[in-house]
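A further point concerns the way the authors explain their paired sequence and structure data. Nothing conveys this as quickly as seeing an actual entry. An entry of this sort, consisting of the sequence and the corresponding backbone structure tokens, reads as follows:
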Amino acid sequence: MNHRGNGQLNMSGETVAKQVVQSVNVVIYLQQYRNGQWVNIWSDKTTKFGSINATINKSVIAPRGYYYRLVGVHGVNHNGVYEMDISYHWNFLCPLNTPIDSPKLTVLFGDISTHNK
């Protein structure tokens, strides 16, 4: 996630399989800390079929002066086996004029074709 000082947040998330799979997906949630809890304020999802990865790159305008986190839900489906994982980029303050850089949310899955159902 990258914050540009004008309230624009550039976010990205990726799910990567070790091999081409039937489907691979990623969902990213932008959450704002409000009244003692994390609240979803934006989300997006992409699914790719017959692929090795799914990637989202999006920009949104978010109110400044709040704490945010980015949550990724990653999934891979192949030969009747579904695996999922969750990733977080924790607690950053969206400042008034200072850019913030952070890494892409990425989860790498192993060879799921060898797992038992």
Residues 8 and 61 are 4 Å apart (CA to CA). The radius of gyration is 16 Å.
